[in-house]
Amino acid sequence: MQLALFPLSAHLLPGGVMPLRIFEPRYLRMIAEAQTREFALCMLDPRQPDALRNMYPIATRVRIIDFDRLPDGLLGIKVQGVERLRIRDLWQEGDGLRVCDAQPLPPWQGGRLPQDQRNLAQALREVFSDYPEYAALYHEPAWDDACWVAQRWIEVLPIPAEQKQWLMACEDYRPALRLLSNLLVTSH
């Protein structure tokens, strides 16, 4: 599948919601073409010397769920993650918009959060409480869904991008839950 790319310094996974400010002409075009050519959020890789290819390989296809004109006159959109992708090839169009050929990755299957990992949902609730603007993005948090909890943690956890990419490339969310459980035990 061919998609436009919107590079960021953050990750978004399926089910995740993120507000974006759009102002560069190439990204305004990307939004205008979103009905005919979907786009994906990807993360910049500052270690990559080739400026055209300075992106990590795992991205997330998104859909626009809301848009508005911001007080500063810029276009504000809200996107939701749809599916994880592996970027296979990428190129740049005349206005600088990067486009990729990507392969969808199998979706992680949701499941009930195990009893011994309920503390992960509780800790995430505390993050939501500390950051109400982030919490406001999620009208119906899925606190009992292990996949949803793992994905939100991957998005907000301050770990290196390489580690997030490794977790995003996994076949399911279990490695993320193991890492999170270990981190939570270590921090308390």
Structure explained in plain terms:
The structure is a single chain. The chain is α+β, with helices and mostly antiparallel strands. It folds into 2 domains: 2-104, LON domain-like (Archaeosine Trna-guanine Transglycosylase, Chain: A, domain 4, Roll), CATH 2.30.130.40; 115-187, LON domain-like fold (Orthogonal Bundle). The protein has 6 helices and 6 strands, in the order E-E-H-E-E-E-E-H-H-H-H-H. A 5-stranded mixed β-barrel has the order 1-3-4-5-6. Helix 4 (146-156) crosses helix 6. The mean pLDDT is 91.
What Rg do the Cα atoms give? 17 Å
Please, what is the CATH homologous superfamily of the largest domain?
A: LON domain-like
Secondary structure: helix percent? 25-40%
**Can you tell me the number of structural domains?**
2
User: Average pLDDT, to the nearest integer?
Assistant: 91
How far do the termini sit from each other? 44 Å
Q: What is the general shape?
A: globular
CATH architecture of the largest domain: Roll
* Count of beta strands: 6
Roughly what fraction of the amino acids lie in strands? 25-35%
Major beta sheet summary: 5 strands, mixed, barrel
What class, by secondary structure content?
alpha+beta
CATH topology label of the largest domain: Archaeosine Trna-guanine Transglycosylase, Chain: A, domain 4
Strand neighbour order, sheet with most strands: 1-3-4-5-6
Order of helices and strands: EEHEEEEHHHHH
Task: Assign the CATH class of the largest domain.
Answer: Mainly Beta
The number of helical segments is 6
Low-confidence stretches: none
Pfam families: LON_substr_bdg
Domain Lon N-terminal: 1-188
InterPro entries: Lon_prtase_N, Lon_prtase_N_sf, PUA-like_sf
Protein name: LON peptidase substrate-binding domain-containing protein
